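Subject: sequence -> structure tokens, single chain

Hey, anyone have a minute? Need the predicted structure for the following. Not urgent.
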Amino acid sequence: MIAAMMTPPKDIPPDFALSSYVYELPPERIARRPADARDASRLLVLDRSAGPAQTGLHFTDLPELLARRFPQGALIIANNSRVFPARVFGRRKTGGRVELLLLTPLPLLDVTPCEHSPGWLCAEAEGLVRTAKRMKEGEAAEFDAPLRAILLERGEYGRCRLRLEWQGEIEEILNDIGHMPLPPYLEREDDAGDRERYQTTYADSHKAGSVAAPTAGLHFTPEVRGQLMAKGFDWAEVTLYVGYGTFSPVRAEDIREHVMHAEHVEVPDETARAIREAKAQGRAVVCVGTTSARSLEGMHQALGKVAAFAGDTSIYITPGYEFQVVDALITNFHLPESSLLIMVSALAGRELIMAAYADALAREYRFFSYGDAMLIV
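Reply:
Had a minute. Here:
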């Protein structure tokens, strides 16, 4: 079992007690591999005004469901960031094995020529380094490519500041020797199928920087998108480079004490204009995934309005938060005690969300990254 229910402390309101976001999850309910087809996943619909969740649906039902709910159409916002094979294995000069998970998005690397190695490029980056014996600052790891990583400084929670040095194109090197950074709870190594399925069909090749997929988007196929467009829905995109912190549990029993990790967000001007137009017309903004929702709410938090934005956001959405941009959400089923479960509870209400999760478990829905979907309207 992943977690079991606990009684919230008496001095913390239930909405802010971490123990209110615990549920019992049998291991067999974790989707360790994707469904046979992207849009074959099941879909649970949670109407905040109607109460109990609607089950017995599949993702292919989404266009018709949204058309009934929003007959005037709506604007759908998706995160176009691309997962890159950020997990690489190398060796120390001593021969010891090194595992590196590169955390810095490739488009954000500040690349310069290496002064001491003509023909090589270098950039500082952040990563997680795992070795049998602790690496020393200044020590280098070599990989099966013209690539090395020098440990510059150790930080909190295993994060390290590194200097990467390489020849050629860093993205090509990682595509050649890297592994997809699957979530730890899948408890398996990546395989060739994950290169395609742990990636949305609309991921932008110029936005390779996420170390976790924006998983609500994994269900979308070109056919589903085409049906939505045919029903009068518009599509716009943002970029949020999903960081490793998305797997980090909330550790404070009073969830208000949790400090959210920062992630880089880009809201293009054309997306901001589309949102302003939709709002002016009384049309809903439907986000594909919590990362898209955090992008829009983080943009609004930073600017106080809907406008183009590029920068980091560490927005932490808890019950009581008033959503400024997002009207509806397509999402997956999230881990107990996670900031994502807390966020969807802020949107739909904690009791309603936890009841829907209990119903999904009873009906044997599949949970987490490769699992089934939920529509919150």
